[in-house]
Design goal:
It is built from 20 helices and 13 strands. The relative contact order is 0.15.
């Protein structure tokens, strides 16, 4: 865990994957993230396998570097705790529908009454103001609605879901960017802000950036869809003993590829040397790679292509990733001992800090620039918290005395 966001306090009302992925990134950079859960806990806690009823492995991988407080936000006393917590924080993040947030006392209008400088960021399924704004949304629903499942169709044309929680994670990145943008805005102006990062709209922007294609022009020229991405021959190529990703991209790559393969006529073909014609004929060139690829083994191809600096890669299975030499060298998979759960493995944050960092004490000061200083050594990551593990500690920090805390427990407002 880095300390670049040390001093930034985040109230995390998110669940499942989208929001927790965003707030975990903030926690990895040193923000203090307080995860607010109902008595039932985040539904992702129950996804198995896991050695604890509270912390399944999927929950663990999206909720490190956070603390947990349980509040029954259907109760006024619990909402009062939330409002006090927000008054002493910088950021609120959620991935609820707006009507749900309002019902729980967590709308922007309500929370900014308690903190006028609040940075409030949320990711509903569908943008407010549209006919779907109150519809429920999960990753599969958005994969279907945004066109991703159709783009991923099988050989018979049947739509297929991508085998990853891809929409949640892509929009989670959008949500993290929104938070950091809001924080910068507040540093510059001293004002709070509300930023919406809806799932369908974010994924449509993500996919259509290339696939709007000729429809970027009015009237449109050509069809929707980026031809290179839609080529039926854009795929890992069968080699003598397996499959390999081979991607000549620039004119230099293509010419070198065909020359190295003993195909000089193709190396000088206008379809290779003319970038515009190559764009139009890309599927024909991919077919040429498919024709040539079975002539060599993976090892032979990798040696040849790397010598020519042509992009290439073996096709890893999930089981291959832990042994991938690059991932091993960068320490992507970390093992640690937990007193409750035993030996655990987690993915480290993919970020690396190389430059000197600004003094973390100046992070939230709009008029203070601090002096360049050596960033303190990264702190050890904390595993995902047990449900409500920090409830009493957080209440104490908010100024509740023992009698008030016990009353909140007895009423069921906290747990």
């Amino acid at each position: 865990m880095f300390q670049l966001l040390s001093g930034l306090k985040v109230v995390d009302l998110t669940t499942i994957v989208l929001g927790p992925y965003a707030t975990q990134i903030l926690g990895d950079f040193g923000a203090e993230v307080v995860k607010v859960e109902s008595g039932d806990g985040d539904l992702f806690r129950a996804v198995r396998p896991g050695r604890s009823a509270d912390v399944g492995v999927q929950f663990q991988n999206f909720n490190r570097n956070k603390s947990s407080i349980v509040l029954d936000l259907k109760q006024p006393d619990a909402q009062a705790v939330l409002h006090k917590l927000v008054s002493e924080s910088d950021v609120v993040v959620h991935n609820m529908r707006s009507r749900s947030a309002a019902r729980l006392g967590a709308s922007f209008d309500e929370l900014r009454r308690h903190n006028p400088q609040l940075v409030y960021c949320y990711a509903p399924g569908f943008a407010d103001g549209g006919p779907s704004q109150d519809d429920p949304a999960y990753d599969d629903i958005i994969q279907a609605r945004c066109g991703l499942a159709a783009l991923n169709a099988d050989a018979d044309g049947a739509p297929q879901f991508v085998r990853s929680i891809v929409c949640d994670k892509v929009v989670g990145l959008h949500l993290a960017i929104a938070v950091l943008t809001g924080v910068v805005h507040r540093l510059k102006t001293g004002e709070g802000v509300c930023i919406e990062a809806p799932m369908l709209e974010s994924m449509t922007a993500f996919l259509m950036s290339e696939h709007l294609a000729g429809h970027s022009l009015v009237p449109p020229e050509g069809e929707l869809g980026y031809a290179r991405m839609l080529s039926p021959h854009r795929q890992p190529y069968r080699t003598l003993d397996g499959y390999l990703a081979i991607l000549p991209y620039s004119t230099r790559h293509w010419s070198r590829f065909f020359s190295a393969c003993g195909e000089p006529e193709l190396a000088s073909d206008p379809r290779v040397t003319d970038p515009e014609l190559r764009s139009e004929k890309i599927d024909e060139l991919y077919q040429e790679i498919a024709r040539i690829a079975p002539s060599r083994s993976n090892a032979e191809w990798l040696a040849l292509l790397r010598a020519e600096d042509i992009p290439c890669s073996p096709v890893n299975q999930l089981t291959d990733l832990k042994a991938d030499p690059q991932l091993a060298a960068s320490g992507m998979f970390e093992t640690f001992e937990d007193p409750e759960l035993g030996t655990l493995q987690q993915l480290r944050s993919p970020f690396r800090l190389h430059a000197a960092a600004i003094d973390s004490s100046s992070v939230l000061s709009a008029d203070s620039h601090g002096d360049a200083a050596t960033d303190p050594a990264p702190l050890a990551d904390s595993r995902a918290p047990d449900l409500g593990a920090h409830t009493r500690t957080i209440l104490s920090k908010l100024g509740y005395d023992a009698e008030q805390v016990n009353a909140l427990y007895q009423s069921g407002s906290v747990a």
